[in-house]
Amino acid sequence: MNRFLSSVRRLLRPMLIPALALLTALAIGAVIMWIFGDPPLKAYKGLFEGAFGDPKAWARTIRKMSPFILAGLSVAVAFKAGLFNIGASGQFLMGTVASVAVGINFDGLPAAIHLPLALLAGIAGGAAWGAIPGILKVY
After folding, report:
1. Is residue 132 a contact partner of residue 113, using CB atoms and an 8 Å limit?
2. Distance between CA atoms of 76 and 64, rounded to whole angstroms?
3. Phi then psi for 107, rounded to 5 degrees?
4. How much is the average pLDDT of 65-71?
């Protein structure tokens, strides 16, 4: 039993700080809403239902959160490699601009060519934006 409790503590300890941060943020938000006369429980209920209320809400949430997760992972990989990358949002934005430019300007291509071309343009746009500070760091 003692071994079980120590393993449970070892698993739950890394989740303690993020859970406390989430609860603190929710509490501070509730206080601010209450000060301005808005019902915090109603607002949080709407937030939860809008994000997870039905399958379409889940799909919308996943679709909108995926780019942020990928940008965060790119920063984590850079930190793990010993680099300091604060330009992930700019790289994401420039990659988006390049992909949209290809998507709009190369209308009429078959999807098998159009989609990979737009993806490659997005990769190239983000890489070009990230190369600017990379080149400056090298020289």
Report:
1. no
2. 20
3. -65, 140
4. 90
Residue 129 is encoded by which pair of tokens? 């934006």
Mean pLDDT of 102-117: 92
Three-state secondary structure string covering the chain = CHHHHHHHHHHHHHHHHHHHHHHHHHHHHHHHHHHCCCCHHHHHHHHHHHHHCCHHHHHHHHHHHHHHHHHHHHHHHHHHCCCCCCCHHHHHHHHHHHHHHHHHHCCCCCHHHHHHHHHHHHHHHHHHHHHHHHHHHHC
Nearest to 95 by CA among 75, 121, 76: 121
Question: What mean pLDDT is reported for the chain?
Answer: 90
Model pTM score: 0.63
